[in-house]
Design a protein that fits this description.
alpha+beta, eight-stranded mixed sheet, disordered N terminus, 19 strands, five-stranded mixed β-barrel, 443 residues, 28% helix, single chain
């Protein structure tokens, strides 16, 4: 038989409730993660929403007899007595009195998710089997930590009087321009998937002064690299009445400090499971773009081939330099060339070849782009025309400028990239739950 009959009703609890129910009979629901047969008894490991819980089956505990239908992958309701684990100090386990099978897998698992071998499977196989491999405690821990990053971002910005917004992802124009934009047939009219919520963030600054959004953005980049995705989650904010773009950098520094402490306090089990090293943030050093190029040339003897942007190797060099010189995992690089920044970036009045903008590097990779925006209507129109753009194509965007905008700026922070480097992954796809790249649209 599959279950014990009887009229005893047990309270259903999670593992965190076990200490309060020692020597009591309770129930617990979860998935059978692993069964380890021993001589005269068996360990039945249950995977709950966040924990992997050890339960023990033995004929000595009750009249229940475990049947062949109890297999790995079953959804079950266990009833049993909570006891202290005799072999692991501070841990608890359940002595099984009954197993009620709620569902049974139609086939055995295509891959073993309860052993370390999963760490070494090819990335493509991992992604092809994502509905299964995400059940691995290590893989699901990645996205609990990612949840914590997004929660920390939200919590901190709420504390700084930001308003959360939700902007359209089908747009009439592309915020960044260029070729890396997905085009759609929208009832016979050409529209675009959002490259960022940039235009809407700016429109809402005169409404709320400070706004943020956590949501998907789309880039039609034909890159098949370890750091590119065609859909990713961007954590954006925009703030008005700034004195300079350093206000934006200071806000991000505060958010990152909060996020790291939040992860330490609220996601310690996942951090420990993955062996993640959280950065200590005091102050984040700042270097100008051209000064950074000079450091790369003079200190590291690397020949510069592009004075408009950084190559990945150059970002890695700067990351090592920041760690050595300032003991910082982060580095702000400011004053990027105007020709490499979008049309809404404010040029530096002291030298219009450069912008009042920045990138944030984390352990040698760019995770943030931000800066001060043009708020004057005539200045914005002039820059558009200087770039060969037609201001008439941006009528609704320019409406905000035409009727008054405060000095403002903001940034976009890539959730997958910060997760990737926080956890030491070599490929951003490990930090994307269901990645989308030039080759993959499933599962």
């Amino acid at each position: 038989m599959d279950t014990i009959s009887g009229n005893v009703t047990a309270t259903c609890v999670g593992y965190s409730d076990f200490p309060a129910h020692v020597d009591e009979v309770v129930c617990m629901k979860g998935m059978i993660h692993r069964i380890r047969e021993m001589t005269g008894f068996a360990f039945v490991i249950i995977r709950t929403a966040r924990e992997v819980v050890q339960c023990v089956y033995s004929p000595d505990f009750s009249d229940y007899r475990m049947v062949d239908k109890v297999v790995e992958g079953c959804a079950v309701k266990l009833t049993g007595k909570i006891v202290k684990d005799a072999t692991r100090e501070g841990r608890y386990e359940m002595q099984i009195h009954d197993i009620e099978i709620l569902s049974t897998p139609a086939e055995p698992m295509p891959i073993v998710i309860n052993k370390k071998q999963l760490d070494n499977i090819p990335l493509d196989l991992d992604l092809n089997l994502r509905p299964v491999t995400l059940r691995s405690p290590k893989e699901r821990a990645v996205f609990k930590i990612q949840e914590g990053i997004a929660r920390g971002f939200r919590d901190y910005l709420f504390s700084q009087n930001f308003t959360e917004i939700h902007t359209p992802k089908i747009n009439a124009q592309g915020a960044e321009g260029g070729a890396n934009i997905f085009k759609l047939d929208y009832f016979g009219k050409q529209v675009f998937l959002a490259q960022s919520p940039q235009f809407y963030k700016q429109m809402l600054v005169p409404v709320y002064e400070r706004v943020f959004e956590v949501g998907p953005v789309f880039r039609a980049e034909h890159h098949d690299t370890s750091r590119h995705l065609n859909e990713y989650i961007s954590m954006d904010f925009e703030m008005g009445f700034i004195d300079s773009f350093y206000d934006i950098m200071n806000m991000e520094t505060g958010a990152l400090k909060y996020i790291m402490q939040f992860l330490k306090d609220s996601y310690a089990p996942e951090i420990a499971l993955l062996g993640a090293v959280l950065p200590e943030i005091k102050e984040i050093p700042v270097v100008k773009f051209m000064d950074a190029k000079e450091i790369i040339t003079k200190k590291f003897k690397k020949k510069i081939t592009d004075y408009r942007d950084f190559e990945p190797e150059e970002e890695q060099i700067l990351g090592k330099w920041a760690k050595k010189e300032f003991d910082s995992d982060f580095l702000f690089v400011t004053h990027y060339p105007s020709e490499k920044r979008p049309f809404y970036a404010m040029d530096d009045p002291a030298d219009p070849k450069y912008t009042l903008s920045f990138d944030l590097l984390f352990r040698g990779i760019e995770i943030t782009t931000g800066g001060q925006r043009i708020h004057d209507y005539h200045e914005q129109v002039a820059k558009m025309r200087a770039r060969g753009m037609n201001p008439d194509d941006f009528e609704s965007y320019l409406m905000a400028h035409k009727y008054g905008m405060p000095p403002h700026g903001g940034l976009g922070l890539g959730l997958e990239r910060i997760t990737m480097h926080l956890l030491g992954f070599k490929n951003v796809r490990y930090a994307s739950m269901f990645p989308r790249d030039i080759n993959r649209v499933t599962p």
